[in-house]
Amino acid sequence: MSQRSLFLVTLVVDDYQRAKEFYCDIMGFECLNDEPLADGKRWVVVRPAGSAGASLLLAQADGETQIAAIGRQTGGRVGFFLATDDFERDHAAMSQAGVRFLEEPRREPYGTVAVFSDPYGNTWDLIEHAALPAS
């Protein structure tokens, strides 16, 4: 049987540097690649520090169609989910760094969660999953 995994998701942004500063300097992601490409483009890949999960390819919009998609790639739904092992710590640090939360933290059967927005209007869940009951 073959093994596959999702490892990279493109996020259309208005400016490479602005996006990299938000995700790396404010969100604490690590920059895995920032390589120049042809025509002034760059291959910028970031992911949560210490994670082995999926990464984001920050792709600067090129043309009207891509510009129109900035912040609306998921049609207004929460499109990205950032798991944490300490909700209170990360919520406080992100809030202090200027991340805009769109709601107060709430407790759900699946965990503690709050929706936040990146500078483009994409919405994210910060979530600490509830511990599974011992079986």
Task: Write up what this structure looks like.
Helix content is 20%, strand content 37%. It is an alpha+beta fold and 135 residues long. The chain folds into 2 domains: 1-70, 2,3-Dihydroxybiphenyl 1,2-Dioxygenase, domain 1 (Roll), CATH 3.10.180.10; 74-135, 2,3-Dihydroxybiphenyl 1,2-Dioxygenase, domain 1 (Roll), CATH 3.10.180.10. The strands form 2 sheets. Strands 5, 6, 7, 8 and 9 form a 5-stranded mixed β-sheet that branches. β8 and β9 (123-129) form a beta hairpin. The longest helix is centred in the first third of the chain and has 11 residues, at 16-26. The protein is globular, with a radius of gyration of 16 Å. The two termini are 30 Å apart. The relative contact order is 0.17.
Can you describe this structure in just a few lines?
The protein is built from three helices and nine strands. It is an alpha+beta fold and 135 residues long. The model has no long low-confidence stretch (mean pLDDT 95).
